[in-house]
Amino acid sequence: MARNELRPVIRLRSTAGTGFTYVTRKNRRNDPDRLTLHKYDPVAGRHVDFREER
Fold first, then answer.
1. How far apart are CA 49 and CA 54, in angstroms?
2. Band of the pLDDT at 2, cuts 50, 70, 90?
3. Residues 9 and 22: beta-carbon distance below 8 Å
4. Where residue 47 sits, what CATH number does that domain have?
5. CB 45 within 8 A of CB 18
6. What's the CA angle centered on 54, arms 22 and 14, to 5 degrees?
7. Does residue 12 have a pLDDT over 90?
8. Which ranges does the record mark as transmembrane (predicted)?
């Protein structure tokens, strides 16, 4: 199956200011806006919001 731009690879950067990132994929048809997920930041040592960067 060919990879296309419908499900691109995105980087999620921590809003805690630590610079930690997660890499994931998203479906642009279901989530056309920037994605925000609540995940664990090991540098900060707690759960924080991670926002999609472009």
1. 16
2. low
3. no
4. 2.20.28.120
5. no
6. 35
7. yes
8. none
